[in-house]
Amino acid sequence: LLFPVSNLCGRCRPRDTDILQPSLNFLYWSLHQTTPFSQQRAVAVLLSNVSLLELLQKVLECTWLWSPATEPVYLSPEDALLCSGWLLVASLLLYQHRYNTEVHQILSLDLTEVLNAVIFRNKKPILLLVSIMQFLRTLLRQNFSSSLLVLVGQNTAQGTMQPQPSLLQDAALYPLAMQQVFSLVVSLQNLLVHIQLQKEMLLSQAVVACLESLVEYLYVKNQDAALHVASQPWHRFLLFALLNGGQKSFLQPEVLRLMTLFLRYQSSNIISQKEISQILQEAAEANLAQLPEATSHALHLFLCQV
């Protein structure tokens, strides 16, 4: 089925949402819900389809063209298609890297546009934000190095990937600039505080995962920059805001994952021994068998880090 469905996608236009949206979803799940051997074959089939990749290029570019005039109250067919497109491309990036699959058509994206989609949000639906952050997280975990994707933006010159930094720190973090890093961190923090009031669990998980991948990327590129970002005093205010957003417990998955992140990068000004003791005390008193899976997993990572 991959052959006819991917060929059908390649003959469509981005406005053919009634055909494309379920088709891209089928391709996405074909990659994820299969055996590793079949997964490798599926990636090869999709990456060999030039018309499909050209269509995905056009779909992603529509993200900057289909901005709603007002805050969306539901996911429109166009936004649903964008979600499917970003998730599928993120998966192709992941599995192409894993299996070192041959690429027949390279995608091109403006890195500044991708970052701005998260930093400024521009009234984008929650699911679309989650999808773009999943894509950004994949890029960060691959150190912005992929055979499938070429990034362009303000830190590239004349279509090349050679850095033209004004600061040594920006050169170390290339293709990111330190100003973009701080803007992204502040935006992710604001998103966490905002969604804590709305109980948007899917978005909160995506935000924390993106923040984790960002700091990991910084640590690989420039340890001083990573430790500087992880120790920002605003993180402590963020934890207070999360703990006062309705649930007083430390045993919230986003709180536990943030605590783990700060422990990993030794941010002693953000998390203290007292808070570590409070988490251990709450864990000792909790019925672990009844904890949600996300909380149980986050608690496991926290205890391992401690």
Describe this structure in words.
By secondary structure, the protein is mainly alpha-helical. It folds into 2 domains: 1-153, no CATH class; 178-305. It is built from 15 helices and 2 strands. The protein has helices at 2-10, 17-32, 36-47, 50-61, 77-99, 111-119, 126-141, 168-173, 178-198, 201-221, 223-230, 234-243, 253-264, 273-285, 293-305; strands at residues 107-110, 149-152. A two-stranded parallel ribbon has the order 1-2. It is globular. The N and C termini lie far apart (48 Å). 36% of the residues are buried.
Topology, element by element:
Layout: H1 2-10, H2 17-32, H3 36-47, H4 50-61, H5 77-99, E1 107-110, H6 111-119, H7 126-141, E2 149-152, H8 168-173, H9 178-198, H10 201-221, H11 223-230, H12 234-243, H13 253-264, H14 273-285, H15 293-305
Parallel strand pairs: 1-2
Helix pairs in contact: 1-2, 1-4, 2-3, 2-5, 3-5, 5-7, 6-7, 6-9, 7-10, 9-10, 9-12, 10-11, 10-13, 13-15
Distance between the termini: 48 Å
From the alpha-carbon coordinates, what is the Rg to the nearest angstrom?
A: 20 Å
Overall pLDDT confidence: 89
| Shape type | globular
Can you tell me the number of structural domains? Answer: 2
Instruction: Give the count of helical stretches.
Output: 15
Structural class: mainly alpha
Strand content: under 5%
